[in-house]
Write a structure and sequence with these properties.
The chain is about 40% helix and about 20% strand. The chain is of the alpha/beta class. Helix 1 crosses helix 5, helix 2 runs parallel beside helix 3 and helix 6 packs across helix 8. The longest helix has 14 residues. Bound molecules: calcium ion (CA).
Protein backbone atom coordinates (compact mmCIF):
# COMPACT_ATOMS: atom_id res chain seq x y z
CA UNK A 1 0.00 0.00 0.00
CA UNK A 2 1.39 3.36 -1.03
CA UNK A 3 0.38 6.60 0.65
CA UNK A 4 -0.73 9.33 -1.74
CA UNK A 5 -1.19 12.98 -0.84
CA UNK A 6 -3.68 14.61 -3.20
CA UNK A 7 -3.51 18.42 -3.29
CA UNK A 8 -6.52 19.97 -5.03
CA UNK A 9 -8.94 22.74 -4.06
CA UNK A 10 -11.74 21.62 -6.39
CA UNK A 11 -14.05 19.44 -4.31
CA UNK A 12 -15.36 17.31 -7.19
CA UNK A 13 -11.97 16.57 -8.68
CA UNK A 14 -10.58 15.82 -5.23
CA UNK A 15 -13.37 13.44 -4.30
CA UNK A 16 -13.22 11.59 -7.61
CA UNK A 17 -9.43 11.21 -7.46
CA UNK A 18 -9.38 10.17 -3.81
CA UNK A 19 -12.01 7.54 -4.64
CA UNK A 20 -10.09 6.24 -7.69
CA UNK A 21 -6.77 6.07 -5.84
CA UNK A 22 -8.38 4.41 -2.81
CA UNK A 23 -9.94 1.84 -5.13
CA UNK A 24 -6.48 1.29 -6.61
CA UNK A 25 -5.41 0.22 -3.12
CA UNK A 26 -3.63 3.35 -1.89
CA UNK A 27 -3.94 5.17 1.40
CA UNK A 28 -5.03 8.62 0.23
CA UNK A 29 -5.21 11.94 2.00
CA UNK A 30 -6.77 14.95 0.27
CA UNK A 31 -5.79 18.52 1.15
CA UNK A 32 -6.90 21.81 -0.40
CA UNK A 33 -4.02 24.29 -0.08
CA UNK A 34 -0.29 24.65 -0.47
CA UNK A 35 0.26 25.22 3.24
CA UNK A 36 -1.63 22.05 4.14
CA UNK A 37 0.31 20.16 1.48
CA UNK A 38 3.68 21.19 2.92
CA UNK A 39 2.59 20.31 6.45
CA UNK A 40 1.31 16.89 5.33
CA UNK A 41 4.52 16.10 3.41
CA UNK A 42 6.54 16.78 6.55
CA UNK A 43 4.21 15.07 9.04
CA UNK A 44 2.76 12.21 7.02
CA UNK A 45 5.67 11.54 4.61
CA UNK A 46 3.59 10.23 1.71
CA UNK A 47 5.07 7.98 -1.01
CA UNK A 48 3.66 10.16 -3.80
CA UNK A 49 2.23 13.67 -4.04
CA UNK A 50 -0.29 14.70 -6.70
CA UNK A 51 -0.21 18.48 -6.93
CA UNK A 52 -2.64 20.92 -8.56
CA UNK A 53 -1.09 24.23 -9.66
CA UNK A 54 -4.08 26.53 -9.16
CA UNK A 55 -4.29 26.61 -5.37
CA UNK A 56 -5.97 29.24 -3.18
CA UNK A 57 -2.94 30.25 -1.11
CA UNK A 58 0.29 29.66 -3.05
CA UNK A 59 0.85 28.93 -6.69
CA UNK A 60 1.50 25.21 -7.19
CA UNK A 61 4.88 25.91 -8.81
CA UNK A 62 5.89 27.71 -5.62
CA UNK A 63 4.56 24.84 -3.50
CA UNK A 64 6.62 22.42 -5.61
CA UNK A 65 9.82 24.36 -4.95
CA UNK A 66 9.10 24.64 -1.23
CA UNK A 67 8.29 20.96 -1.11
CA UNK A 68 11.52 20.06 -2.92
CA UNK A 69 13.44 21.96 -0.27
CA UNK A 70 12.24 19.50 2.37
CA UNK A 71 11.49 16.22 0.55
CA UNK A 72 12.50 14.00 -2.37
CA UNK A 73 8.97 12.52 -2.58
CA UNK A 74 7.86 11.88 -6.19
CA UNK A 75 5.48 14.64 -7.34
CA UNK A 76 2.93 14.34 -10.12
CA UNK A 77 1.66 17.76 -11.18
CA UNK A 78 -2.01 17.44 -12.18
CA UNK A 79 -3.36 20.67 -13.59
CA UNK A 80 -5.52 22.41 -16.18
CA UNK A 81 -2.47 24.41 -17.32
CA UNK A 82 -1.25 22.84 -20.51
CA UNK A 83 1.16 25.41 -21.90
CA UNK A 84 4.77 24.45 -22.39
CA UNK A 85 6.14 27.13 -20.09
CA UNK A 86 4.22 25.72 -17.12
CA UNK A 87 5.21 22.15 -17.99
CA UNK A 88 8.89 23.05 -18.31
CA UNK A 89 8.78 25.09 -15.08
CA UNK A 90 7.22 22.13 -13.25
CA UNK A 91 9.90 19.68 -14.44
CA UNK A 92 12.63 22.21 -13.68
CA UNK A 93 11.05 22.70 -10.26
CA UNK A 94 11.42 18.99 -9.54
CA UNK A 95 8.17 17.42 -10.76
CA UNK A 96 8.41 13.75 -11.75
CA UNK A 97 5.37 13.68 -13.98
CA UNK A 98 2.77 16.06 -15.43
CA UNK A 99 -0.89 15.29 -16.13
CA UNK A 100 -3.27 17.73 -17.81
CA UNK A 101 -6.91 18.00 -16.70
CA UNK A 102 -9.32 16.53 -17.36
CA UNK A 103 -7.86 13.13 -16.54
CA UNK A 104 -9.65 9.94 -15.54
CA UNK A 105 -9.19 8.22 -12.20
CA UNK A 106 -7.69 5.24 -14.05
CA UNK A 107 -5.20 7.47 -15.82
CA UNK A 108 -4.13 9.07 -12.56
CA UNK A 109 -3.83 5.68 -10.84
CA UNK A 110 -1.61 4.49 -13.72
CA UNK A 111 0.64 7.54 -13.37
CA UNK A 112 0.93 6.91 -9.64
CA UNK A 113 1.86 3.27 -10.35
CA UNK A 114 4.49 4.33 -12.86
CA UNK A 115 6.05 6.86 -10.50
CA UNK A 116 6.11 4.28 -7.71
CA UNK A 117 7.78 1.76 -10.02
CA UNK A 118 10.52 4.26 -10.78
CA UNK A 119 11.09 4.68 -7.07
CA UNK A 120 12.24 7.73 -5.18
CA UNK A 121 15.91 8.69 -5.46
CA UNK A 122 18.03 6.50 -3.23
CA UNK A 123 15.17 4.09 -2.64
CA UNK A 124 14.88 0.52 -3.79
CA UNK A 125 11.96 0.44 -6.19
CA UNK A 126 11.12 -2.27 -8.68
CA UNK A 127 13.84 -1.70 -11.23
CA UNK A 128 12.83 -4.39 -13.72
CA UNK A 129 9.66 -3.84 -15.73
CA UNK A 130 8.25 -6.83 -17.58
CA UNK A 131 5.90 -6.68 -20.54
CA UNK A 132 5.34 -10.12 -22.05
CA UNK A 133 8.77 -11.53 -22.86
CA UNK A 134 10.40 -8.12 -22.56
CA UNK A 135 12.29 -7.27 -19.40
CA UNK A 136 13.56 -3.72 -18.92
CA UNK A 137 16.07 -3.11 -16.17
CA UNK A 138 16.11 0.65 -15.65
CA UNK A 139 18.94 0.63 -13.18
CA UNK A 140 21.25 -1.50 -15.28
CA UNK A 141 19.92 0.12 -18.47
CA UNK A 142 19.53 -3.29 -20.05
CA UNK A 143 16.55 -4.60 -22.01
CA UNK A 144 16.09 -8.27 -22.79
CA UNK A 145 13.70 -9.99 -25.14
CA UNK A 146 13.12 -13.64 -24.23
CA UNK A 147 16.31 -13.44 -22.17
CA UNK A 148 18.44 -12.07 -25.00
CA UNK A 149 19.96 -8.65 -24.44
CA UNK A 150 18.92 -6.02 -26.97
CA UNK A 151 21.52 -3.62 -28.31
CA UNK A 152 19.83 -0.28 -27.88
CA UNK A 153 21.03 3.29 -28.13
CA UNK A 154 20.47 5.57 -25.16
CA UNK A 155 17.37 7.11 -26.76
CA UNK A 156 15.97 3.73 -27.84
CA UNK A 157 16.34 2.44 -24.32
CA UNK A 158 14.68 5.53 -22.82
CA UNK A 159 11.84 5.26 -25.34
CA UNK A 160 11.29 1.57 -24.62
CA UNK A 161 11.49 2.09 -20.86
CA UNK A 162 9.01 4.95 -20.95
CA UNK A 163 6.52 2.95 -23.04
CA UNK A 164 6.97 0.00 -20.67
CA UNK A 165 6.37 2.25 -17.67
CA UNK A 166 3.08 3.35 -19.16
CA UNK A 167 2.10 -0.03 -20.64
CA UNK A 168 -0.59 -0.92 -21.66
CA UNK A 169 -1.65 2.70 -22.12
CA UNK A 170 -1.26 4.63 -25.35
CA UNK A 171 1.43 7.29 -24.97
CA UNK A 172 1.04 10.46 -27.00
CA UNK A 173 3.81 11.83 -29.20
CA UNK A 174 3.64 15.00 -27.13
CA UNK A 175 4.40 13.04 -23.97
CA UNK A 176 7.28 11.20 -25.68
CA UNK A 177 8.71 14.52 -26.85
CA UNK A 178 8.47 15.99 -23.38
CA UNK A 179 9.62 13.02 -21.34
CA UNK A 180 11.98 11.02 -23.55
CA UNK A 181 13.31 13.67 -25.91
CA UNK A 182 13.02 16.39 -23.27
CA UNK A 183 11.68 18.68 -25.97
CA UNK A 184 8.26 19.85 -24.82
CA UNK A 185 8.37 22.50 -27.55
CA UNK A 186 8.44 19.88 -30.28
CA UNK A 187 10.85 19.63 -33.15
CA UNK A 188 11.83 15.97 -32.78
CA UNK A 189 8.66 14.58 -34.36
CA UNK A 190 10.52 12.86 -37.21
CA UNK A 191 13.01 11.51 -34.71
CA UNK A 192 10.19 9.66 -32.92
CA UNK A 193 9.27 7.80 -36.12
CA UNK A 194 12.87 6.98 -36.88
CA UNK A 195 13.56 5.64 -33.40
CA UNK A 196 10.33 3.69 -33.30
CA UNK A 197 11.25 2.01 -36.55
CA UNK A 198 14.74 1.13 -35.27
CA UNK A 199 13.24 -0.16 -32.06
CA UNK A 200 10.77 -2.28 -34.03
CA UNK A 201 13.58 -3.78 -36.05
CA UNK A 202 15.47 -4.68 -32.89
CA UNK A 203 12.33 -6.27 -31.45
CA UNK A 204 12.01 -8.29 -34.66
CA UNK A 205 8.76 -6.71 -35.77
CA UNK A 206 7.44 -4.11 -38.17
CA UNK A 207 4.77 -1.41 -38.24
CA UNK A 208 2.74 -3.65 -40.55
CA UNK A 209 3.04 -6.68 -38.32
CA UNK A 210 3.32 -5.28 -34.82
CA UNK A 211 3.96 -7.56 -31.88
CA UNK A 212 4.84 -5.32 -28.93
CA UNK A 213 4.80 -1.83 -30.42
CA UNK A 214 1.46 -0.65 -31.70
CA UNK A 215 0.80 2.72 -33.30
CA UNK A 216 -2.64 4.13 -32.63
CA UNK A 217 -3.22 6.55 -35.48
CA UNK A 218 -3.70 10.12 -34.37
CA UNK A 219 -3.19 9.20 -30.71
CA UNK A 220 0.25 7.77 -30.11
CA UNK A 221 1.96 4.49 -29.49
CA UNK A 222 1.66 1.71 -26.94
CA UNK A 223 3.75 -1.19 -25.79
CA UNK A 224 1.73 -4.29 -24.98
CA UNK A 225 2.38 -7.93 -24.32
CA UNK A 226 1.66 -9.95 -27.47
CA UNK A 227 -1.74 -11.62 -27.51
CA UNK A 228 -1.50 -15.14 -26.15
CA UNK A 229 1.81 -14.50 -24.41
CA1 LIG B 1 -7.30 24.33 -8.53
Amino acid sequence: VASVLFVEDDLHIREAAVRALTEAGHAVRGVTSGAEALAAVVDWQPDVVVLDLGLPDFDGQQVLRMLRAVSAVPVIVATARDDDKEIVAAYDGGADDYVVKPYSGEHLAARVRAVLRRGAPGEVGVPVIEVGGLAIDRRGRVARLAGVELELSRLEFDLLAHLADRSPEVVSRRELLAEVWRQPHGGADKSIDVHLSWLRRKLGESAREPVYLHTVRGVGVKLVAPAGA
